[in-house]
Design brief:
90 residues; two-stranded parallel sheet
């Protein structure tokens, strides 16, 4: 699976959207604009690795990249919370 939203700006937008959505899904709020971008981009990498194992050779567009990045970011947040403890807002 190739995550190809195209260009640095698109990667930042995908990272921001994915990080923010993952923060909302994981009940703890976001991590600020920079934190959301970082979580989203790392999540895109993690999600891309997982989906390339499940669906080798497939390609997704911008929306598919966001979905894959959100799934990867949720996995990343879950792993971070396992290691550092549960960080949820009251």
């Amino acid at each position: 699976m190739a995550l190809e939203p195209g260009g640095l700006i698109a990667w930042l937008v995908v990272g921001l959207i994915a990080g923010w959505l993952a923060g909302q899904f994981m009940r703890g709020g976001g991590f600020g604009i920079i934190g959301d971008i970082v979580v989203g981009i790392i999540g895109a990498f993690i999600g891309g690795l997982i989906f390339s194992l499940i669906l080798p050779g497939s390609s997704v567009g911008l929306i598919g990249s966001i979905i894959v990045a959100v799934i990867g970011a949720v996995i990343l947040i879950a792993l971070l919370r396992l290691v550092t403890g549960n960080r949820t807002a009251a």
